[in-house]
Design goal:
The chain is of the alpha+beta class and 107 residues long. The protein is built from four helices and five strands. Strands 3-2-1-4-5 form a five-stranded mixed beta sheet. The two termini are 23 Å apart.
């Protein structure tokens, strides 16, 4: 899976998500690690919608570093994000609650 494919899949996951319960703006930056998939993108909840764009986001609540396989498992509900974090499959620099909030929107 390429970087572009990962971003497209994440974007599709969040396409019709209702983020109206999130007050203000909540954004995380995702740093992908892996063969042919290294890159940065962000997930931002704002104005009731979720945007996923292939850019860095300087005013984020957290930066998540993960490989694409684990990211997709988390978003598909096949890997618990807390287990992934505590098992070292995901690194979070910043507010882990913000990350969990954005993940919970796709479930």
């Amino acid at each position: 899976m390429t970087y572009e494919q990962v971003v497209a899949k994440v974007k599709a996951k969040y396409k019709n998500v209702d983020a109206s319960k999130i007050d203000g703006t909540l954004a995380i930056q995702v740093n992908l690690l892996g063969k042919n998939t290294e890159g940065i993108f962000y997930i931002e909840a704002k104005d009731g919608k979720v945007n996923v764009e292939p850019y860095d986001y300087h005013d984020n609540k957290a930066v998540v570093t993960v490989n694409p396989t684990n990211l997709m498992k988390i978003l598909d509900g096949k890997l618990d994000p807390v287990v992934a974090y505590s098992g070292g499959k995901v690194a979070i620099n910043g507010d882990p609650t913000a990350v969990l909030t954005l993940i919970s929107l796709v479930k």
